[in-house]
Amino acid sequence: MFKIKRICCIGAGYVGGPTCSVIAHMCPEVHVTVVDVNESRINAWNSDTLPIYEPGLQEVVESCRGRNLYFSTDIDSAIRNADLIFISVLSNPEFLAEGTAVRDLKEPDRVLIGGDETAEGQRAIQALCDIYEHWVPKSRIITTNTWSSELSKLAANAFLAQRISSINSISALCEATGADVEEVALAIGMDQRIGSKFLKASVGFGGSCFQKDVLNLVYLCEALNLPEVASYWQQVIDMNEYQRRRFACRIIDCLFNTVTGKKIALLGFSFKKDTGDTRESSTIYISKYLMDEGAQLHIYDPKVLKEQILLDLSQPHISEDSRRVSDLVTVSVDPYEACRGSHAVVICTEWDMFRDLDYERIYDQMLKPAFLFDGRRVLDHLHPRLQNIGFQVETIGKKVTSSRIPYTPTAGDTRIHINPEPPVKKAKV
Questions:
Q1: Maximum pairwise Cα distance, the chain
Q2: Which among 46, 101, 305, 402 counts the fewest CB atoms within 10 Å?
Q3: What is the pLDDT of residue 93?
Q4: What's the structural domain count of the chain?
C-alpha cells in the first residue's frame, strides 16, 4: 500500500500553518513543507515570533521545525517532491476554532475526508486516512464524496452561526421585557436536544469562517434556484448585523444621544479571545458606527498589532476617507491608558484579563458620569460592585441599570438608525 512520506501545504495562513504543524508533530517520519508566496509570512514562521497567535502553537512548531517541518517560498520544488498536496485543505475541511485550534487538531471530534468515487479517488482518501490514523481513532475519520465534505463544512458553520444569531435575537427581547438572556440560555441549554454550546449572547459573531460560509451557502442556494432556502440563511447574517448596530445605538443613546468628540475606550479588537485574528470582528463594525458619529476611539487589544487595527478601520467599506481614522482612532498599549479620560468603556472581546482590571482605578480616571458597556457578558459577577463604584452599567440581554440619567433631547440631536444597510454582497464559491 502506498505510504505518504512527503507533504506539501500551499498556504501558510490560519488553517495551513497550524494544521500541517500538528501533522508534522504527530507524524515524525513524514516530511512536511508549508509554502506561501508571502515571504514575510514565511520568515515569521521561521522566526521566534509566529505570524499568528494560537495557544500551544509555538511549542508545536518549535518541536519539529527544522526536523520534519519546513516553511518555504519555493513552491515549485515542494510540489514536485510531494506525495500529497494540501491546497487550503480542500476536500479535507477543517473544523478548527481559533483559540483552541491546536487542541482541535490533536483531539478532533471528527476528521472529514472527501474524494472522487473512483479507484484513484479512493486511493487518495485512504492515503490521507493513514496520515490521520497516526493519532485519530478510525471511528472519528469520516469519508465521503467531495460534495458531501464541502457542504458538511458550510452547514456546520451555518448551524453554529445560526445558534449565535438566535440567542442574540432573544437578547433583544430580554432587554425589552426584563428577562436575563443568560438565564434563558441556561434553561434552554439544559434541554439535551438543544445543548448549551454557542448560546452566549454578545455583540455578534466574527472570524473568517461563519459569515463567509453562510454567504457561500446563500449563493449556492440562489444559484440552484432555492430562493426560500437562501433567504432563510441570509437572515442569520442580517441578525448579526442588527446586533452590532443595535449595540452601537445603545452606546449613543446612553451617552445622551451624541458621541461627537467624546472619548470612548474599546477593550478588545480580535473577533474572540485567545487569537490575534481580526477578520470580520464585531469591533470593526462597532468602531465604524461610532466613528460615523464623530466619536474619539481609544482601542486596546493584548494581541492585535496597531498596524492591523488601523488597516482594518481604513478599509473602504468601513471608512471612505482613511484620514478620518487617523483623526478619530488612537491605539493604546495599556488598557488603563485607553480608559483614562474616557466617557465610556466598551468591552468588545472576552479576553480573560478584562475580568481582572482595577475598575476603581479606571472609574477614578474617567469623566463623569462614567459608562461601562459589557458587550461580552464577562463582568456579570462584578455588575453590583461596578454600580457601587459609580458606573452606569449596560450589558447584552439584561437590564442592569434600573434608571438611566435623565436626558432631554434638543432640536440639533442626530442619531444613527438600526435599519440595516443594503445587504452584504454575497460571497461566491
A1: 80
A2: 402
A3: 65
A4: 2
Is position 141 within any domain? no
Which residues are CB-contacts of 23 (< 8 A; sequence separation ≥ 6)?
7, 30, 32, 131
Do 40 and 161 belong together in one domain?
Answer: no
- Characterize the bridge pairing of strands 111-115 and 329-331: unpaired
Does the residue 423 lie in any domain? Answer: no
Model pLDDT for residues 13-65, shown as the tens digit of each residue:
999 999 999 999 999 999 999 999 999 999 999 999 999 999 999 999 999 99
- Choosing from 136, 165, 189, the residue where a domain stops is 136
Stated as kind and residue range, the H or E segment containing 362 is: helix 359-364
The CATH number of whichever domain residue 42 belongs to comes to 3.40.50.720
Instruction: Give the DSSP letter string of 192-205.
Output: TTT-STT----S--
Q: How many CB atoms lie within 10 A of CB 152?
A: 17
Question: From residue 119, how far is each of 85, 131, 172, 234 by CA, in Å?
Answer: 19, 19, 54, 39
- CA–CA separation, 235 vs 120, rounded Å? 41
Per-residue pLDDT band at 98 (split at 50, 70, 90)? confident
Could you tell me if 83 and 7 are in contact, meaning their C-beta atoms sit under 8 angstroms apart?
Answer: yes
**What are the binding residues for NAD(+)?**
11-16, 36, 41, 98, 209-212, 279
Helix axes 227-254, 210-223, angle to 10 degrees: 140
- 216 and 360 in one domain? yes
Q: Please indicate, yes or no, whether residues 245 and 107 belong to a single structural domain of this protein.
A: no
Which of the listed residues 110, 136, 162 is the one where a domain comes to its end?
A: 136
CB 312 within 8 A of CB 288: no
Q: Which domain holds residue 44?
A: 6-136
Round to whole Å and give the CA distance between 178 and 298.
32
Which residues line the annotated binding site? 11-16, 36, 41, 94-98, 153-157, 193, 200-206, 209-212, 271-272, 279, 376
Beta strands (DSSP E) in 193-293 are 263-267
> Is the peptide bond prior to 420 cis by the omega test (within 30 degrees of 0)?
no
**Angle, CA of 221, 227 and 230, to the nearest 5°:** 50
User: Which residues are part of the catalytic machinery?
Assistant: 209
Q: Which residues have a Cβ under 8 Å from the Cβ of 200 and sit 6 or more positions away? A: 164, 167, 185, 377
- Assess whether 199 and 333 both reside in one domain: yes
> Coil, helix or strand for 143?
strand
The residue length of the chain stands at 429
Regarding whether 177 and 106 lie in a shared domain, the answer is: no
